[in-house]
Structure formats: C-alpha cells, structure tokens
Design brief:
Elements lengths: L6 H13 L17 E5 L3 H13 L3 E5 L2
Parallel strand pairs: 1-2
Helix pairs in contact: 1-2
Length: about 70
C-alpha cells in the first residue's frame, strides 16, 4: 500500500491482515488466546497517532515508535 492513503483504506487493510488466520506450526501446541500487541513504527505523526487508536478499536494493543 503506497502513500498517500486514507484512514479508511489503512483501517480496511489492517482489518484484512489482522483477521487472517496465522499459519500453523507443525507440532506446536496451541497457545492461549492473548491480546496481540503491534509495534507501530512511522515517521508521519498523524499516522503514528491514529493507527494505535484503530488497533485498540479492533482489540489489539499497540506501541508507538517515531523516526
């Protein structure tokens, strides 16, 4: 996804990626469901501040890192 993009386009892409099932590892035990945490690394302040809010709305934790 190239810049510039709208907040709605970014949210739709994030939902698509986060809703996809994780690939199964052969022989690995199924871990308990935890709240996923995502590191948001972005130099654009507006994107860096709004993305964690969108992730929180989807039930994910987020940490921010600016460039």
């Amino acid at each position: 996804m190239s810049k510039p993009f709208s907040r709605e386009a970014l949210a739709a892409k994030m939902r698509h990626v986060l809703d996809a099932p994780a690939p199964a590892m052969p022989g690995a035990a199924t871990p308990p469901r935890e709240r996923p945490s995502i590191l948001v690394v972005e130099d654009d302040t507006l994107v860096r501040l709004t993305t964690p809010e969108m992730l929180a709305d989807l039930g994910h934790g987020a940490l921010e890192a600016g460039a």
